[in-house]
Amino acid sequence: MANIVNYIKWRGDLSFQQAPFNKVDYLGLALLIYNDFGGIVPGRDENKRITIKEAADKYFMTHSIENLGKYEYDWVLYYMGKYERFGSLYLSDYVDINDSDRNMVFTAFIVHLPDGSHFVAYRGTTMDIDDWRMDFQISFEEIEAQRASARYLMYIMQKYAGDIYVGGHSKGGNLAVYASMHATDIVRSRIKKIYSFDGPGFCHELLDERAFNEIKDRIVHVVPTFCIVGMLFELNVTHEIVNSSAEKFVQHSGMTWKIEGNHFVHKRFLTEESSTYNRAIDDWIGNATMEQRKSFTKDIFDSMKAGGAVTVIDISKGGFHDFGTILLSAVNSESKTKIVVGKFFGSLWRSFEKIKFVEAVKSVHGIIDMFLIFLGIVFLTIPEAVTSLLGGIIALFCAGWSAIMLVKAGLRDENPIIKRGRMIFHIIILCFMVFIMSNLERIPAWTNFLMAIVFFSLAGASIRYIVKFKSTISGKAKFWMMLLAVVNMYIGIVSIVMPNRFDYTKSVTLGSYLIIVGFIRFIIQLLEQIQNEEGSVRYYEDEE
Fold it and tell me: Rounded to an integer, what distance in angstroms lies between the CA atom of residue 228 and that of residue 225?
């Protein structure tokens, strides 16, 4: 499936007269600003412009595309510079501020569009730790970057005539909405659309409801299916959900969003895991005071920098050493931070408290899961006698069941031929069970036969799961499900062909395996329950 780079290459020869601007074009421009244009794009005090093609030529005089990862932002600039659709667009008024003393990280430029309108693009969060700190600061205060975004937009409005479009990815989306809200009424009327690509909203205590209502109908909020950042302080607008080629948090990168033709590939709902996190985070933030949020942010990010790290990547490279520094710093932090962390885990627990465990156990799926766990416990507790005892219990149960069904069939008022068939069937089952119980030496073989049926059924269930969800599950998930099917099939075959192979050690191993399988199946059912509950109360745009 195509991403933004594929789109730029496919649509590159079409002018904006042939194919007007759309949301995907604006995403490309919102990602373009992640490149470092210092010394390339004219600054705010220079009355000059440069085309994207010229900017790309200058940029790649000092930057190489060799060894670039698939989702590096350099690819956006590289291909935009090669195609007329984007290469002929002009850039100007570049601002790039990174002042740790003022806790200020802010980058923006303006794209001059062919119809005389302009797109103001704000850069989102980079890997810099101070940049991530600012994302957390919006939970308790207006940050310097937000105020700078409003001043920048006012400056652009006064400098250039024509319609204005505003946007950004991640924190850039938040800045775009903030700047639009805080523009004067006359200036605000010139803003046509505000694009927030997985951008967070605003702390309720600091949100200007009147100003927000003035612009909310012009906000286009696009988020991936696994969305955490874009649902922080969720905006009261329609969320356009797009599919992604990545998993979990990596979906935040707009480079992973799937595109077909000139539009995003849409989905109806967020993933169940994302929804669970969002409910917990909302609950957590709602129960933390502004002062607690402030203390938490200071302690955590000061801890991150305690080991000398500058970027998030530095922390991941540091391995356990840097993570250990963070943990030790957090332990010695203010009690307010410990309270907030405790509230977060409490929020997670409250999310799982809403799950109806009893109903899950009573379902057919739950009964099977509990049976597998029970069976595993039996194999663990009496490994030497498990085949004889288990086979005898099952045979006794089946005999009793057949006797009851035989009596019911005899008393049932129905067609004589059907009635006779039912009675013969239950007599055969009853006789067979009596035969098994009267020949104790046959019980282990009978038990192994039943085990084979159980494991063949589990193997079939794994294969059916892969077929049913082949378009949504990842390659890793398919691998593990296939491995599970092969293991179950192998155990089933061994149960029939080589029943004596199940000695003490193998019985204990098999018991542990059954408990794990039953537990995992039950957890999957609980997660599906969360997804169903979420789907019944939150609606998003239809899947295309």
Answer: 9
Whole-model pTM?
0.63
Distances (CA, A) of 340 to 204, 282, 397: 18, 13, 54
CA distance 532 to 518: 21
Tokens of 530: 């969360």
CB 203 within 8 Å of CB 233? yes
CA-wise closest residue to 165 among 118, 235, 208, 229: 118
| Identity of the residue numbered 156 | I
| CA-based nearest residue to 171, from 142, 201, 130 | 201
pLDDT, tens digit, for every residue of 124-176? 987 677 777 777 788 788 889 999 999 999 999 999 999 999 999 999 999 99
Q: What is the per-residue DSSP string for 5-25?
A: HHHHHHHTT--TTTS---HHH
Q: What is the pLDDT of residues 164-222, one digit of tens each?
A: 999 999 999 999 999 999 998 888 899 999 999 999 899 888 888 999 999 999 999 99
Q: What angle do CA 125, 128, 130 make, to 5 degrees?
A: 90
Decide the pairing of beta strands 263-264 and 219-224: unpaired
Write down how long the chain is. Answer: 544
Q: What is the pLDDT of residues 359-396, one digit of tens each?
A: 666 676 677 778 778 777 776 776 666 566 666 677 77
pLDDT tens digits, 254-299: 999 999 999 999 998 898 778 877 777 777 667 777 887 777 777 7
The b-or-e profile of 462-476 (16+ CB within 10 A means b, else e) is bbebbeeeeeeeeee
What pLDDT does residue 539 have? 31
Q: Which of 142-151, 395-404, 510-519 comes out lowest in average pLDDT?
A: 510-519
Class of residue 439 by CB neighbours under 10 A (exposed 0-12, middle 13-18, buried 19+): exposed
The answer to whether the CB of 53 falls within 8 A of the CB of 81 is yes
Q: What backbone phi and psi angles, to 5 degrees, belong to 219?
A: -85, 130
Q: Which tokens in the block code for residue 468?
A: 């049913």
- 322: helix, coil or strand? helix
Based on its alpha-carbon atoms, the radius of gyration of the chain, rounded to whole angstroms, reads 31
Q: Is 239 left (phi over 0), alpha (psi -120 to 50) or beta?
A: beta
The residue whose two tokens read 């797109």 is 119
- Beta-ladder partners of 94: 43
Residue 320 confidence (pLDDT) above 50? no
Sheet bearing 104-112, strands edge to edge: 50-51, 90-99, 104-112, 118-122, 164-169, 191-197, 219-224, 239-242
Give residue 523's pLDDT band: very low, low, confident or very high (50, 70, 90). Answer: low
**In angstroms, rounded to a whole number, what is the distance separating the alpha carbons of residues 468 and 491?**
24
